[in-house]
Each structure stands twice: as structure tokens, then as C-alpha cells.
Write a structure and sequence with these properties.
Strand content: under 5%
Largest sheet: 2 strands, antiparallel
Structural class: mainly alpha
CATH class: Mainly Alpha
Order of helices and strands: HHHHEEH
Shape: globular
Distance between the termini: 20 Å
Radius of gyration: 15 Å
Length: 154
Amino acid sequence: MKTLRNRADRDEILRRLEHVRPDSQRRWGRMTSQQMVCHLADGVRLYMNERPATAPPTWAIQRKVLKWVALWAPLPWPHGFKTMPELEQNGGSGTKPAEFAEDVRTLRELTERLAAMPPDFAWGAHPHFGPMSYEEWMRLAYLHADHHLRQFSA
């Protein structure tokens, strides 16, 4: 299973990011390519407890099932899954794009910082999935980036 913990998987994501341009066309959704870069950066900030997000009310069993399916089921993520307002680019409070190359550089740096985090870091709970282990955070980070890079054919 691919994960940002593995250097080769991380390099794959970062290489694919190089193919995204300000005018890259989306295959689904509403974000522009630059909004997607900022959205992924906000996600990494959330994973490292640098960006808060509120958890929707759910039952523990729903969280466990959703987390297992999202992280381990051999299926691509569906298109159109509603993101949390803190990461929302269109009408939410997600980080607004600035200059494309700088936003990409920020995402690259955040991705490397995340991958360098120690397994015993005080990982917070995910708003939808609840408590997560180091392995689960690294898997989620890979899958989230992969999903949105596929959105822009990268």
C-alpha cells in the first residue's frame, strides 16, 4: 500500500505535482488547479495539528467503517465527497491562492515536513475518522494527494 512514509511513493506524488499548471483543467469538481494545491497544503497542515477542523457528529462505528474504507479498500475515492469547511476552497475558510509557484513550493515543503514527523508525534484525531495512527496519517496523506492529482490528470 502506498504511503508518504515511503520515499518512492512521496517522490511519485511530488513528481506528479510538477505536472500541474495554473491552467490545468479539472476532470471533476469545482476547484482550480491552484485551489487544489492550497487545499492539499491545508490538509497537510491539518494532519500535523497546525490547522484545526471541527468534527461532524457521527457514531464511533461509522468513523471506523469510513476510515477503513477510505484508507484500505482497493477502490479510488469517489468524486464529489464534501470536504470540511476549514479546507473548502469555494466559499469555505481554506487558504486562498497567492502565487502559483509559491503555493506549490509550500505544498512540497509541507509534504516533506509531514513525512519527517516521528511516529510518536502527538497525532490529533481526524475530523471524520477519529483517532489515527502514524501509518494511517501517512496513508491518508498519500491517498488525498493522489485523488486530487488525478482530478487534474497528473
